[in-house]
Automatic annotation (TrEMBL):
<comment type="subunit">
    <text>Trimers composed of three different chains: alpha 1(VI), alpha 2(VI), and alpha 3(VI).</text>
</comment>
<dbReference type="GO" id="GO:0005589">
    <property type="term" value="C:collagen type VI trimer"/>
</dbReference>
<dbReference type="GO" id="GO:0005783">
    <property type="term" value="C:endoplasmic reticulum"/>
</dbReference>
<feature type="domain" description="VWFA">
    <location>
        <begin position="385"/>
        <end position="573"/>
    </location>
</feature>
<dbReference type="InterPro" id="IPR050525">
    <property type="entry name" value="ECM_Assembly_Org"/>
</dbReference>
<keyword id="KW-0732">Signal</keyword>
<dbReference type="GO" id="GO:0007155">
    <property type="term" value="P:cell adhesion"/>
</dbReference>
<keyword id="KW-0130">Cell adhesion</keyword>
<keyword id="KW-0325">Glycoprotein</keyword>
<keyword id="KW-0379">Hydroxylation</keyword>
<dbReference type="InterPro" id="IPR036465">
    <property type="entry name" value="vWFA_dom_sf"/>
</dbReference>
<dbReference type="GO" id="GO:0005615">
    <property type="term" value="C:extracellular space"/>
</dbReference>
<dbReference type="InterPro" id="IPR002035">
    <property type="entry name" value="VWF_A"/>
</dbReference>
<comment type="similarity">
    <text>Belongs to the type VI collagen family.</text>
</comment>
<keyword id="KW-0677">Repeat</keyword>
<comment type="function">
    <text>Collagen VI acts as a cell-binding protein.</text>
</comment>
<keyword id="KW-0272">Extracellular matrix</keyword>
Length: 793
């Protein structure tokens, strides 16, 4: 409905290539859906199955709870053209993890999923909850939707055992922390009676995901199990949880009486308005149009849902390779929360200005741009091939070998989740070579006969067995070059060599620099072995191509293998792999094709006020900087002047036509508020004379006037004459009207030189409006203005 109602009619009125139209249609058609991925992790171990008689009764209750939950997973429609759709799957576990069914679309897959749950027979042995949670995480990441915020695990367990039992997959706390890092919310549901509350609390994302949730009771179909189902579903479908929670900031203009924009504010949607504006710019159509005739009064609508306030993101992390080597991440403060949000990939604040007429009818609420038209501003890492070379020699030790395999899987997961790398045929790929002594290399990689997806690859990595022999690293690297690099011929490749850096170079004479000979970025991770011997830094340097004519890589050393699983280190590794990722350019660049002389005509009258005048100066400096740093045929192509005005004989050339931003910026800072009457027609005549005296032959002449159209004792006829005089001098006029008390007929005369004839398209491209002076500095409005002034004909 969004595409048909809003965008397609717009596109039909434009002359735009059919291929682009088809691409836009395809890209926008899926944006109305809000998928939720839900995965059940069901405990069928001995402590559950054999706790009460008849044996298996609690397992039957868990299956009943799960099926009743599945019955309630139906599509839901929300305002702003959003359809919530469910994807659900399940597994059960004891000392083994058994997949019941992978994620499938509900309600179409309800019957099959319920049947499979009902057919479950309890295993009735040990309890490996950590392994089950990690398998659930894999299912959500591999088969789930790309909405990373809307992934949920429902872990139904009694929490046993508390102690004295080995957890083979890193432990319950490690599994829970991994889910939290990946943004997966985990509900912890008890199998009562005699459940272990401390363990259930560890599983839950936080206290709100634990509460008193229970799946069983001594009473058949008790109220508390039904309440558990209803509460969990309500938490998932509530508006705040459909998008990630953000630290509180000042109230956003998007929180309005109309509530139609209440859910706007997710970081991925920050560029919605801006991208749509720029897209419409290409169509030569503006969001601002003439006010239409009043339509018939419609029937009263139902009360709307309460909107959510949008707040600011306080800070974000950046990672560089120097932090990878030190293991410490650094932070850079983002701008303070303003009327909206700041995006990590572009400076863009999505507070919608109050009174942005005629598109906005309620303060700050877009009525003609539904939420479904939002675009994600994401950087792309890939396609990229990632190669792991894993030392499996005796000096590594079995436990360290298991940690190294876990490290590989975690890096893959983080690349998929954090960097949005798509490991699939035709895109990014992964391969792993493990080695020990002579001719012991084993290769598992995407593209193998039995590995057709990333899930199968990770399973193959888990099944690698410790070789426990000698260390022939050079031979292993040559094997990787011949067997794996020949298959992975991507332009972007990263090889990560995990070893203690103590290759037996007396027996293995193969050079350690084999991977350097091919265009591959090599990272050598040297870790201390089980004998606490330090890694050989010299060998690690050779592996990483240091001191060679090839592209140098990176050599990193750690004292023990446990440090590989440190959260910060994992983050830095994935960031290093994707350090050359490509980000969309939403900087709204300006390209001058010839010489241009631009003047900014600044209102300095009493009605502006001294504080607003200072804000205007900041806005003008941004405009000047944009013009003088734009792409241009030569350094002297663009010149800018600044003139301020007030009454009839109060015009000042604060900055003559110059090309040096530093000089002009100082002159703007030194501008003094005139604080008198307003005569915009006299100001325009002054600028026209300035162009006659100082402008270059053949240069485009453009002036941006800051005015609300109000002038004391000046008629529309006076303004028309001044504008027509400027037009005869080949000056193109743009007007920025600020405030809600604009004189509309005078503004029309300023823009076109006529008040009786209306040119809607021309006015839309030459007249800008902002509700107040503070809004001048918000978001990307200043970029839009400068781009229009610089590029419009």
């Amino acid at each position: 409905p969004v595409l048909n109602t809003y965008l397609l009619p717009l596109l039909t009125y434009t002359v735009y290539p059919e291929a682009i139209f088809s691409q836009l249609s395809s890209a926008l058609s899926h944006l109305i859906y809000c998928p939720v991925d839900l995965f059940f992790v069901l405990d069928t171990s001995e402590s559950v199955a054999l706790r009460v008689k008849p044996f298996g009764d609690l397992v039957a209750q868990v299956k009943s709870f799960t099926n009743r939950f599945i019955d309630k997973l139906t599509d839901r429609y929300y305002r702003c053209d959003r359809n919530l759709v469910w994807n659900a799957g399940a597994l059960h576990y004891s000392d083994d993890v058994v997949l019941i069914k992978g994620l499938d679309r509900m309600p179409a897959g309800q019957a099959d999923l319920k049947r499979r749950v009902s057919d479950v027979n309890y295993i009735g042995k040990g309890t490996h909850t950590d392994c089950a949670i990690k398998r659930g995480i894999e299912e959500l990441l591999i088969r789930g939707s790309h909405q990373k915020e809307n992934k949920y695990l429902i872990v139904v367990t009694d929490g046993h055992p508390l102690e004295g039992y080995k957890e083979p997959c890193g432990g319950l706390e490690d599994a829970a922390n991994e889910a939290k890092h990946l943004g997966i919310k985990v509900f912890s549901v008890a199998i009562s009676p005699d459940h272990l509350e401390p363990r259930l609390s560890v599983i839950a994302t936080d206290n709100s995901y634990r509460r008193n949730f229970t799946a069983t009771s001594l009473i058949e179909f008790p109220v508390d199990t039904e309440n558990t189902i209803e509460t969990i579903i309500d938490m998932i479908v509530s508006i705040p949880l459909l998008f990630p929670s953000i630290a509180p900031g000042p109230p956003s203009l998007l929180s309005t009486p109309a509530h139609c924009c209440g859910v706007f504010g997710h970081a991925d949607h920050l560029l919605c308005i801006k991208v749509l504006h720029n897209m419409l710019d290409h169509f030569a159509v503006s969001l601002q149009g003439p006010k239409g005739s009043p339509g018939p009064i419609g029937l009263p609508g139902d009360p709307g849902l309460m909107g959510e306030r949008v707040s600011g993101i306080s800070q974000w992390n950046m990672t560089d390779e120097k932090w990878l080597t030190t293991g410490r991440a650094q932070q850079e403060e983002a701008p303070p929360p303003a009327l909206g949000l700041h995006s990590r990939t572009a400076e863009c604040c999505v507070g919608v200005p109050t009174g942005y007429s005629p598109v906005v009818t309620h303060p700050g609420c877009l009525t003609h741009i539904p939420l479904g038209l939002c675009f994600a501003a994401e950087c792309k890492c890939g396609p990229i091939d990632v190669l792991f070379v894993l030392d499996s020699s005796e000096s590594i030790g079995l436990q360290n070998f298991q940690i190294a395999k876990d490290f590989i899987i975690k890096v893959i997961d983080r690349l998929s989740k954090d960097e949005r790398v798509k490991f699939e045929p035709g895109d990014s790929r992964v391969g792993v070579v493990q080695y020990s002594h002579d001719n012991t290399q084993e290769l598992v990689a995407m593209g193998d006969a039995n590995i057709n997806n990333i899930g199968a690859l990770k399973e193959a990595v888990k099944n690698l067995n410790w070789i426990a022999g000698g260390t022939y690293t050079g031979e292993a690297l040559q094997f990787t070059k011949e067997k794996l690099l020949a298959r992975f011929a991507s332009d972007k490749r990263v090889a990560i060599v995990i070893t203690d850096g103590r290759s037996d170079t007396l027996r293995d004479l193969t050079p350690l620099s084999s991977l350097c000979e091919i265009n591959t970025q090599v990272v050598s991770l040297g870790i201390g072995d089980i004998f606490r011997a330090s890694p050989n830094s010299e060998q690690l340097g050779v592996i990483a191509c240091e001191g060679t004519s090839y592209r140098p890589g990176l050599s990193v050393q750690r004292d023990n293998y446990a440090e590989l699983l440190d959260d910060t280190f994992l983050q830095n590794v994935t960031s290093y792999i994707c350090r050359e990722k490509k980000c969309p350019d939403y900087s709204c660049t300006i390209n001058f094709t010839g010489p241009a002389d631009i003047t900014l005509l600044v209102d300095s009258s009493t009605s502006v006020g001294s504080q607003n005048f200072e804000l205007t100066k900041k806005f003008v400096k941004r405009q000047v900087e944009r013009f003088l740093t734009a792409h241009m045929p030569s350094e002297d192509s663009v010149r800018v002047s600044v003139v301020q005005y007030s009454g009839k004989n109060q015009q000042r050339t604060e900055a003559p036509f110059l090309q040096n931003y530093t000089e002009i910026a100082k002159m703007i800072d030194d501008m003094e508020f005139l604080n008198d009457a307003t005569d915009v027609s006299a100001a325009l005549r002054y600028v026209t004379n300035l162009y006659r005296q100082s402008s270059r032959v053949g240069a485009n002449k453009r002036v941006l006037i800051l005015s609300d159209g109000n002038s004391q004792g000046i008629t529309r006829n006076d303004i028309e004459k001044a504008v027509q005089e400027a037009q005869r001098a080949d000056i193109t006029i743009y007007v920025l009207a600020i405030g809600s008390q604009a004189h509309e007929s005078n503004l029309q005369a300023l823009v076109t030189g006529k008040t009786k004839e209306q040119n809607v398209a021309y006015e839309a491209n030459h007249l800008f409006r902002m509700p107040d002076y503070n809004s001048l500095l918000q978001g990307v409005f200043y970029q839009k203005v400068s781009r229009k002034v610089a590029t419009e004909n």
